[in-house]
Amino acid sequence: FLCAGAFYFAETLGKQDIAKTLEEVNFSNRNTALVVEENVRLMLTQTDSVLLMMKTDLEAQGFIDPTHQKLLQTFLQVTPIHQIGIANASGDFIFSAIPLTQATNIADREHFKVHLQNDAAGLFISQPLISPVVPKATIFLSRRINDSQGNFKGVVSIGLEQQFLSNLFEKLSLNESNSFTLLRKDGI
Q1: pTM of the prediction?
Q2: What number of helices (H) and strands (E) belong to the chain?
């Protein structure tokens, strides 16, 4: 009878230890997920602010204010942004913060097509692709530019290094039972 009681007591303590450990791991995972989510959200929000600044300049003045151009050059040096560009309604680059070695057209790119076809797309985040300007895996954030009548005039886009996100996730030291996935609304 004593042996049965001891085994029952040991099993109960073991289950409590497992439950407590599981609760601690889940709490830690939730906190880590919240920190990563907030960092990614902040990066996307800041990038969108730059796009909105560019869009506002172009729609109001037809060009980017020289002070803002200098600011864009600074963003390239201190952020994971490695391309900032403006394409006209045909998809031809009319501005690039990185000097272009040849004429570049992005009319076949997802982040251009979505704005051409939908004037209410707002901020669009592309799936990762190789940039035509900087040959690295890039996630493009873009916004539509309209003329004074609301017609499609082109897009402003910013390319974020996909490796930046990969490096962020690698620093988390995840084990085989944890993972992070960044998805768009369409599941990509």
Answers
A1: 0.78
A2: 4, 6
